[in-house]
Amino acid sequence: MIRRWFIEAKGTVNAYQWEDNQAVVEWLSDSLQDETSLIFENIKCIQRDQVIENIRNLIQNNPEVAMDSIVHITQHMTPGQRSEVSRILATMDSASSPRSGSVNDES
To answer: What value does the CA radius of gyration of the chain take, rounded to a whole number of Å?
Structure first.
């Protein structure tokens, strides 16, 4: 994984530098000093994915807390984020409900 990040940061033209320990250490040291570096961004993504996976597992193993969890989460959102969640939920509802006037609708 770190090798891939090195190549992403340095470019494929400089991929050969991966074999040079000093170059890798310098890149890693420099990257760890810069909170906007590729390493920090990738670590944030990995941490985010892990948090989401943990939440999914907790809800799957404890479905009775799903509604309480949603309420708690929405209380910590901005009004704009809550509006976006409402829009997504409305879209999910309309996508899962049968369409009126369809071939199977006998009304």
So the answer is: 23
pTM for this entry: 0.66
Question: What does the longest C-alpha to C-alpha distance in the chain come to?
Answer: 75
Report d(CA 87, CA 31) in Å as an integer: 39
Token code pair at residue 87: 């829009």
Model confidence pLDDT, tens digit, residues 14-68: 999 999 999 999 999 999 999 899 999 999 999 999 999 999 999 999 999 999 9
Instruction: Please name the residue that has the structure tokens 């309309």.
Output: 94
Helices (H), 62-78: 66-75
Q: How far apart are CA 14 and CA 79, in angstroms?
A: 46
